[in-house]
Each structure stands twice: as structure tokens, then as C-alpha cells.
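Board notes (copied after class):
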Amino acid sequence: MMEQINILVFPCGSEIGLELHRALKDIRFITLYGASSADDHGKSVYKNYIGGVPYISDPGFIDEINRVVDENGIKFIFPALDSVIAFLSANRDKLHAELLTSPDEAVQICRSKEKTYKKLEGCLFLPGVYACADDVPGYPVIIKPSEGQGSQGFMIIKSREELDYELSQRTDPQVICEYLPGEEYTIDCFTDRHGKLRFASCRNRHRIRNGISVNSTLMPPDDNIREIAETINKKMELRGVWFFQLKRNTSGEYRLLECATRVAGTMCLERAAGVNLALLTVFDALGYELDIPEPLSSATVDRALYNVFSLGLDYDEVYMDYDDTLIVKNRVNFTVLRFIYQCVERNIRVVLLTRHETDVREDMQEFRIFPGLFDEIICIPRSEKKIDHISPSENALFIDDSFAERDAVRRAFGVTALGVDAVEALIDERQ
């Protein structure tokens, strides 16, 4: 039996922290804890959530994070933001748990584009980098912060005057680079504890919003990209999950944008294709020899905002309609079914209340719905009112697609009545 381990994700509400939650929450031997300095979306998805952790700039941060580690039996910390990775890595000897990232030298190099380019100096896949405005051979060029991630601070510069102005306005160190107009790619990688590159998978960044790839497709194997990955891996002491980004220049050749020693939010694509890089990192830290499967050859992800609600409702029983609520357009409403299972798990009484004209139990069997999910099934004639067949508790919840039915129950008993479209808001995403 695999030993049970507790893993802390910090900060858990970043895109990286949310992907780590999705990647590890259903692994039977892992219990996830999420911590944040400011309440964010992590509070809505991490069942074991710890808020109010000081920022890394706070002098008391290390003591507080160690208190969290000690009180919750944390074995590993999975850092989930570039600046946090760099800080924790530099202070890993003070931490009471093992950090799931590369050795500190690689972390600090990858945090700085300037250091990354210097470490890889002489490699043909580096873009043209110019020490100052006087060295720029022609325009356009780009500037970006030496330390940063994604597209933060990225700007296309079209003239010397524009470059001089931008450099005068920016206080942090900047990198002036060759302009790369071609398609952009992310290569998600995994290096084992022996230093061997075990996995390198390329995906395009077809659509990008706020520096995050929101539409991405796995690309076919490319020997050139694999060679670049091997070169980076040899020149830096990497371990576990990491990635780098490439973009094509005007001649169609690959040029390096940046490297990062962390999970990428869109690594969900590799996970969907069969390779969970976050989990591989955990296994590697535990000392296991790994057999990595071949991923699916084709996969695409499209990402968008999604909703997690908090209604503040406290209910101890639910009355649920059948037609046009549990079954809609002759299909099972999976959101409603998920909510019913959530109630069963929490020992909340669920009553099916329906005017279904045929044997509802037989019809439920056709849809593979187990009648035993319900504590009671009440079938009433179409001519009768539902309010005459229920005796709801003070904290009951009534769910029905009909406004008239909801309004009647609300007026008669004073309980909360919601339509089928609101059931989404009753789902608890915390796991």
C-alpha cells in the first residue's frame, strides 16, 4: 500500500495552483492542502484551505509556513507562482517540508531571462539579445522584464525613440530581444532524479489571454524541439516538472523565449492525454523508478472562466422534480445528478416529487438512474398540487423547473425554492 502523504500547494488560487488541484485531488494516497496570503479562487476548490498566510515579503513568512506544515503533517510543498518558487527555493534549508521543484541554481537561473540566456550562451536556438539600444541592428524588437512570466511587460518596439522612452520608464532590468513573429509553443518536460529527460511534449499556444494559453493543441513529435529540450536539460540541473517556450523567427526557426521550473496551467492538456506531470514529480520525489506511457497523439483544450458559487444556504432535505429537472430533453441532467449524489454523501434527505405519467421507477431504470438515490419517491396525479403532498422542514430546499410550483411552495411553507438553472450554484467544488 502506498503511504498517505499530505501536500501543500501555495499559493493555491493561482492558475498553477488550480491545475495542481485538478491533477492531484483524485489520487487516493494524496491529501491536498491549499494555502494563500489573500483569499482567492483556491478557497472555493480546496477542501483543506488555509487562508491568511503572510506574503513572502513578510519577515514572519517562513515561521508561519512551517507552522502550517507542522500542524498538518505536510511532506511536500508544491509552489505555484514564479516569485514564490524563487523565494522558497532560496530558503529551502529553512523549510520543514521538501520543495517540489528543481535545485535552487536552476530555479534562480530560470527566474531571470538574462541569466537563462547567459547560461545557454552559444546555443543556436537563442534569440538575438542586445545589451543596449545602440546594439539594436534594426526594428521592430521586443522588450520584456528580465524577471517575469507569461506576457507581463512584453512590448513590441518599432523605433529607437520608442525604445529609449520605454527603457527610461521602466525601473526593473529589461531584456531587449529579436522580434519573433511566428507561432508560439510550450514544451512541457519532466526530468527524473537521475537527471534524465524523460518527457518533452510540444503544444501550440493558439489563443492567449493575459499571458495564459486558453486554446492549445498537442503537436507531433519534432526532433529539433527534442534536441533543444535535451540541451537545456544538460546545461541546467533540472528535476521534476518544468517547461520552456519557443517562438519562430522570420525564417521559421525556433527561438527560446523562457524556461520555468514549475507546472504550467495548460499542462492539463498532457494530463488529459495520459501523462500527469505533477503526479510524476511526486513519484520521483518519493524515489520511484517511473515508466511513462506514450500520450495520446491528438488533444486540444479550450479554457474559459467558470463559476463557483457560495449561496449561504443551510438545508437538511431536498424536494426534487423529475421531468424537465432531473431529465431534460430526454437526457439525464448531469448537474442535477451530481447534486443528488452530493446530498447523499452529506446525509441530506432527498425526495423525488413528480407528476410523471408512467411508472417513474421503470423510466429511471431506462436512464440507469438508481431509485435508491432517493429517500422517498412521491408520485402524484397531474390534477393535484405538489404543496398538498409535502411537509417540508424549516430548512428544506425545493427544486422544480416550474415557477408556479416554486412560488406556491415558497408562499405555503416559506422555504427556499430554486429553478433547475440554479442547481449549478449548489455544487460544492471543494475536494
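Comment from the instructor: The chain has four domains: 5-100, 110-114+184-302, 128-178, 317-426. The chain has a mean pLDDT of 93.
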